[in-house]
Design brief:
The structure is a homodimer of 443-residue chains.
Chain A lengths: L1 E8 L3 H21 L1 E9 L16 E2 L2 H6 L5 E4 L6 H11 L4 E3 L2 H18 L3 E2 L10 H8 L5 E7 L2 H13 L3 H11 L7 H4 L2 H15 L9 E2 L7 H9 L2 E11 L14 E12 L11 E8 L3 E8 L3 H21 L16 E2 L6 E11 L4 H11 L4 E5 L8 E12 H13 L3 E10 L4
Parallel strand pairs in A: 1-2, 1-4, 2-3, 4-5, 5-6, 8-10, 10-13, 10-17
Antiparallel strand pairs in A: 7-9, 7-11, 9-10, 11-12, 14-16, 14-17, 15-16
Helix pairs in contact in A: 1-11, 3-4, 4-9, 6-7, 12-13
């Protein structure tokens, strides 16, 4: 049986997980693939470090270049993380004509186009299933399973840490800081949690999915992102009373052109955003709890489909890496170096819609003086901005100088909403800045 | 750009849908694939029939053999249904070395092994994504996305008609016959509904998934199947009170060997069944409603993953066929005739566990005389059979000679349960045969 030798770069959690998974299920994969995978070398930072996964010392080295250049190594597996050395590793391998498997979403987000160009130039492929949504084979689904579809919507719960925190806040009525501290203690959140809770991890992922769906490479700097740090247990409670669950949602949605401007040019101008969102409780995404990820993909032919699983962690990531190893091994076996290229720019004219033009519904929570005329003044500001109110809720049972006032707002664009909110926040009857959370009805 | 000419056999709902989808998104697919798909001919039963999808008359013929043999046709798409002519169509194409795409689960179920052997013998591939769960790319997920995993569980809601009927029975408290009649009027159920409601459609599908997961071809005759025709609104109501939703569930589960018999031989003896099941309301499968399908796949590395979408209908099926057309086109472009063979028998010693040995939990509904000692007599029969009762519920508010008695039963095998039920049904205090529905806790 043909043997494919792997050079693994990175011996941390993911590297150890992949090594372990290859040992565990390598024979099964060989029987399914007709190709045998063997780890030929593994570059790590410290060969003497104690590891949770035992790796034969003879495989370990600190010399990644030696592993990449080793003529015995057919396939380079970049699992070190970061965007500096990892970029050099990937480029070096591609220049040697060796295919690269990576789990590194930050690397793709920052240097995707350069890596894709190198893959094309040197005739070696780049595989990155593990970079988005861990064990969910969402890259394969988008590129192959739904290839016959124009993708009209993607809604992703792509960060397990955020989803874990929001789930516990909902079920326990706890506050953000409290749950975050607990999540850190349990290992579900990093000591430095900003990459997750500020939405930047999800940003990398949704950028990759948006790029694959719409055929132009999305510049991560153009993705509008808001974190979950400002979500309070009060808003989760009020949302619940209104029949909604708050989720950190990554959204890809082509802008609909006005009816009188002719047919929509699908894919040409696309919303790509990450922000907390009220999701109706009867929608399947509202039931995705704890550290689980899910991606809803709507295709113009297939309709709504949904993919659910663990989005991070050693094993979920290893499962996705193994899937790429299988594809790479088959490509090596069959001599098809770029059967499915890492990225096909089929919509070069595409662009990300600036956040100001993004339209959505909103939940607004105001802290107002309980006095006749208050609502009229707020409604007047919204009315002048042509922003429609779909309902007004004054929750009962509040005491003190001010009372909460919840407004549910019809479709409005971000810029108009921002201007109206600035005016509302200046009203004397409004005691603290309005809380604004978007509402998604999945139309 | 390279062009792949399709010969479509069958001009019904699915054939029309595929033709329409190729017209609609063919250019998009070409830009993604680098291969252009063109329908070169289409064999139908009646060229003059009025069709919902307009097909140029020049493409139509009643001569399927002419289409299959046409040297211009590179790829044969079998969408006619049935297992007789469809088998001849597929075998004829494969013998000519032409790859075949099919959406025909009954054909695969009945003649899969013969077709796989022909594909291997003549060096032409066979693709069948559309045969299971419509628009959900579950075949690709199992064979490629999760290839690094030993599959330890599959739970599928694989028949949209059953799920639609059970969903409406639950939400409306309606009876089976009533909802079925309505579903027939709305086109969600066939005039002859037995293939769906008796579970045989799901049987074909779960047999294919079980075969792919466990590496031996499952004989459909060995799959135990029970339909939903005996599910009453009363049982749906009681299940709801206990925190469960009744779903028609297809299950693939390797038998666990007793601890003292050594390590489990994964995959060697596998439960493959289709029957109505009580699913806990907080499990994600309980929320899969109406005509939607979903498949939960548990891998030993990835853990639980779930795939959700429309399982049938013109467009969902067309989406899956397009995915196969893309794979087939890439294989033709790259000259890789059997990159992923239609079936790899990697576990030749595998076998389906006879239903008698299948272990599960049960919901039992008895109709008993409300008299002291009744429960004791029933409990004694179960006790002698070493079947444990986990709870007993006597729903309130019933009048008349007899009252319902619900028993929730611990793990027991089907054979033991059947013997105990026969004894219970013979008791004078039991007024009508016990209703037995399995309970799944997804362990």
């Amino acid at each position: 049986m043909q043997q494919v030798n792997l050079g693994i770069i990175g011996g941390g959690t993911v590297g150890g997980g992949v090594f372990q998974a290859v040992q565990r299920n390598g024979a099964l994969m060989a029987s399914r693939l007709g190709v045998c995978l063997r780890v030929a070398g593994m570059a790590v930072r410290d060969v003497h470090k104690k590891r949770a996964v035992r790796i034969p010392p003879a495989l370990l080295t600190t010399n990644w270049l030696g592993v990449v250049r080793d003529p015995q190594v057919h396939l380079v597996v970049e699992l070190m993380g970061g965007t500096t050395t990892a970029r050099t590793v990937a480029l070096t391998a591609l220049r040697l004509g060796k295919p690269v498997v990576t789990a590194n979403k930050a690397l793709l987000s920052a240097h995707g186009e350069e890596l894709f160009a190198a893959a094309q130039q040197y005739g070696a492929n780049l595989y990155y299933e593990a970079s988005v949504a861990g064990g969910i084979p969402i890259i394969k689904v988008l590129r192959e399973g739904l290839i016959g579809n124009r993708i009209t919507r993607i809604y992703g719960i792509l960060n397990g840490t955020c989803n874990y925190i929001l789930t516990r806040m909902k079920f326990e009525g706890a506050d953000f800081a409290e749950v975050l501290a607990d999540a850190q203690r349990l290992g579900y959140a990093e000591a430095e949690p900003s990459l997750d809770v500020d939405g930047h991890d999800a940003l990398h992922k949704i950028g990759i999915l948006a790029s694959l769906a719409h055929g132009f490479w999305v510049n991560p700097k153009q993705i509008h992102v808001e974190g979950i740090g400002s979500i309070t247990s009060l808003d989760i409670k009020f949302a619940g009373q209104l029949g909604y669950t708050i989720k950190q949602l990554s959204i890809v949605k082509p802008l609909e052109r006005a009816a009188n401007r002719g047919p929509a040019m699908d894919g040409s101008r696309v919303q790509v955003t990450v922000y907390p969102t009220l999701v109706p409780n009867d929608h399947v995404l509202a039931s995705v709890n704890h550290v689980f990820n899910a991606v809803l993909v709507r295709g113009d032919i297939v309709g709504d489909t949904l993919y659910y699983g663990r989005g991070a962690g050693q094993d979920a990531t290893a499962s996705a890496v193994l899937s790429d190893l299988a594809d790479a091994a088959l490509d090596l076996k069959c001599g098809t170096k770029s059967r499915i290229p890492p990225f096909v720019p089929h919509e070069r004219a595409g662009a990300v819609v600036p956040i100001g033009e993004v339209v959505s519904r909103y939940y607004l929570r105001l802290d107002v003086v309980d006095r006749p005329g208050t609502l009229a003044r707020i409604a007047a500001i919204l009315g002048r901005a042509r922003i429609g109110i779909s309902s007004v809720i004054q929750p009962e049972g509040h005491e003190g100088d001010s009372v909460p006032l919840i407004l549910m707002i019809h479709d409005a664009n971000h810029a108009a909403m921002g201007r109206a909110l600035a005016r509302i926040n200046r009203l004397a009857v409004v005691k603290s800045p309005a809380v604004m959370i978007r509402v998604e009805n999945f139309e």
